[in-house]
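EI: anyone free to look at a 284-residue chain?
SC: sure, send it
EI:
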Amino acid sequence: MKLGHPKQGPLLSVALNCPDENWLENNGNCYMFSVFPPISWQRAEKACKNYGANLVCIGDIDERNFIKRIVKDNGSGKSWIGAVDTGGEKKFTWVDGTPWDNAIADWAIAQPGSPGDDQNCVSIGGFFIGWYDEPCETKYNYICEKDINKPTTPTPPNQSTTRFIPPFTLPNSRRTTQYLPPFTLPNTRRQTTRFVPPFTLPNTGRQTTRFVPAFTLFTDVPSTQGSTGKTGAKGNSTGVIVGVVVGLIVVIVVALVIGFILWRRRRYMQTTGTSTIIQNPNYE
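SC: here you go
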């Protein structure tokens, strides 16, 4: 996480009452500015809730200017805040119940959009650090806010991280065995398929039987499908070429035969016409 430590220090300070050094304190609230990874508005709100917080909800001019300075000092593009239009009518509310005040809203030029569009979540940023209504699936940074005295909620147990046991060497063997146990993907309760590659037993030169489950993340089983497919394609191409050549030869032969017949017929007619001319001796 990257935090907005300001160039002008009096307003922004790290408070001992906030969870840790990643949070900034201002007027009894703690703020955390996250830039990695950029996520959707819904996931950003969920990430903040894991800290016992919400996406920042701006209740007055001082807080608005404070957040504006955090975004400006970090210079990392747009960030999600806790404003949302749940009805698609451009009637925005704050997720923590803070009353909405149009006098505090700091919309950028031509913002917000028209009712009925899909731009129902609000970000802050841009060249002049204004507010924008955006599609909620867009991935941005986000800013969390919590009361300075509110305890941090731990991450739920079903969102466990991946367990990994690195490769190790069996006694008196030449190969190492890599074992990746089942693990739970974040935000799910489904397990991946366990994969155990072949390994060498101690004091033997024989390998165990290789086992590839129905679904695995790795495979080293060679396949001949590609070469067979290429051979079949090559044979089909050769047959097509031979067929075309034979067809052309047949057409040429037929054309020659027809031409020869026409030539003979014309020749015959010319010969016959000449022989029928009779010289009449009375007409001289």
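EI: Helices lie at 41-49, 61-74, 225-275.
SC: 👍
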